[in-house]
């Protein structure tokens, strides 16, 4: 009965992640509703998974699996806020990273962070190498958001939401056990 509802969750997750990544790439802003939507969607996901588990009363206390996810999401939020306060990342990136990390779980968060770090490094290297070709960057044929991307890069700003989103999309099979 819950299978059709649970099967929609990966698509909703992917939509929110893609929207946040593309929004940050094009405007250097991630709308708050994207991060809040990811958190709300995770709460729905955790509740639906809890409903599908058979209930066996026992005398021992068992911590629900989603509690670990919330702890990880909170820890990532705290570290992200520290990075935001120091000016390393934007506030939208901090919220977006915490909201996507919430989905990863104790095992997947390390893999997610490694993929994210590699993608952010690749993006920075591509921008650094291609920025040395300034005559191509300032040519009239490039879209406005690409010119803005290079201008922000010269000010040491990167749209970290893009590699966060791509890393989250790579993790979808792990998250949803596809």
TrEMBL record:
Transmembrane segment boundaries: 33-51, 63-83, 103-126, 133-151, 157-176
A GO cellular component entry from the record: membrane
Molecular-function annotations in GO: aspartic-type endopeptidase activity
UniProt domain Prepilin type IV endopeptidase peptidase: residue ranges: 12-125
InterPro entries given in the database record: Prepilin_IV_endopep_pep (IPR000045)
Entry keyword set: Membrane, Transmembrane, Transmembrane helix
Superkingdom, taxonomy of origin: Bacteria
Keyword Nucleotidyltransferase: no
UniProt keyword Membrane present: yes
Protein name stated in the entry: Prepilin type IV endopeptidase peptidase domain-containing protein
Species for this entry: Aestuariivirga litoralis
Taxonomic classification: Bacteria, Pseudomonadati, Pseudomonadota, Alphaproteobacteria, Hyphomicrobiales
């Amino acid at each position: 009965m819950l299978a059709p509802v649970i099967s929609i969750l990966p698509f909703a997750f992917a939509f929110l992640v893609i929207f946040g990544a593309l929004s940050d790439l094009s405007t250097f802003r991630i709308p708050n509703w994207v991060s809040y939507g990811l958190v709300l969607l995770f709460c729905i996901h955790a509740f639906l998974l809890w409903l599908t588990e058979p209930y066996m009363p026992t005398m021992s206390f068992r911590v629900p699996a989603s509690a670990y996810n919330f702890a990880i999401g909170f820890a990532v939020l705290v570290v992200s806020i520290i990075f935001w306060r120091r000016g390393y990342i934007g506030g939208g990136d901090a919220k977006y990273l915490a909201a996507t990390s919430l989905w990863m779980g104790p095992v997947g968060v390390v893999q997610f962070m490694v993929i994210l770090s590699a993608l952010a490094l690749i993006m920075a290297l591509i921008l650094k190498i291609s920025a040395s070709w300034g005559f191509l960057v300032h040519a009239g044929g490039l879209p406005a958001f690409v010119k803005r991307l290079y201008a922000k890069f010269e000010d040491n700003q990167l749209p970290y939401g893009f590699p966060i989103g791509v890393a989250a999309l790579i993790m979808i099979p792990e998250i949803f056990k596809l």
